[in-house]
Design goal:
elongated, mainly alpha, 263 residues
Length: 263
């Protein structure tokens, strides 16, 4: 990857000059609010640790990435920084003879396969207190996650109009989908019933399906903490995202046995 000579008027640019322009470019490209937020967070951390990175892009990038030993974390930051530096290069802001990531590659993740049995799922579903709104919400959200493998960030942006009780389906709108392509997810009867019950007890009409107890959006971080806590209570080490990848995601498609076990 060859560097593009920097134009003379850009020699004194600072991160606060470049980062807002990059964010504006990504917003114009149609990225989701969640992804934009992640870019802001990552670049803020990067330039906080290495404020002179625009003057020493390759050295500072390698120093930053060297701090991350976990392959998954390393790969996330690698991907974000590559997009940023590619844009910097294309805009002619780049300093240096080599691309900051030239010769560096993503690492092979160690990976963690989450195996959940029907009894594990039943124990997990028994944790939320369905006599309270928050417990009913979490129960319905676990049902949806296990039933469809939906991404947590997509599930938490669903609105009541995206759900069809009659058709037994959920629509993932393009602006919500990570791939920016809409899709329809069929639902099992227990998931339909859980979501329908949740919607009937809520006082809000224009809040996301899985809102907080005050009707505001429920964050992925908060949901992940809840799943970890539920898992810990029943001896499982899981996160919200693990529900998407677990081998048990298809169990409900084969007869909803987990719900039978739970009841």
């Amino acid at each position: 990857m060859c560097a593009i000579p920097i134009r003379k008027e850009y020699w004194n640019l600072q991160p606060e000059d470049v980062v807002p322009q990059f964010i504006l470019y990504k917003q114009a490209s149609g990225l989701s609010d969640r992804t934009i937020k992640d870019y802001r967070k990552m670049l803020k951390l990067f330039f906080l640790r290495h404020p002179d990175s625009l003057d020493h892009p390759r050295e500072r990038t390698m120093e930053f990435l060297s701090a991350y030993k976990n392959p998954s974390t390393y790969n996330i930051y690698y991907a974000y920084l590559k997009v940023f530096w590619d844009w910097v290069q294309a805009e002619g802001y780049f300093k240096g003879d080599r691309h900051p990531l030239d010769g560096l590659h993503k690492r092979k993740p160690r990976g963690r396969i989450v195996q959940l049995s029907e009894k594990d799922i039943a124990r997990l579903l028994s944790q939320p207190d369905k006599s309270r709104y928050t417990g009913l919400r979490d129960y319905a959200l676990i049902c949806l996650s296990i039933d469809t493998g939906i991404r947590p960030g997509e599930a938490l942006q669903l609105m009541p109009e995206d759900f069809s009780h009659e058709k037994k389906e959920i629509i993932i709108r393009a602006e919500v989908a990570k791939t920016r392509v809409s899709r329809v997810l069929p639902l099992s009867d227990p998931t339909v019933q859980a979501i329908q019950k949740l919607l009937t007890v809520r006082p809000w009409k224009n809040a996301p399906i899985f809102a907080t107890e005050t009707g505001t959006p429920y964050s992925v971080q908060s949901w992940s903490r809840r799943v970890k806590a539920y898992g810990k209570k029943c001896g499982l080490s899981i996160t919200a995202y693990h529900l998407r990848h677990a081998s048990a995601l298809l169990l409900l498609r084969r007869g909803a046995d987990a719900f039978t076990v739970q009841n």
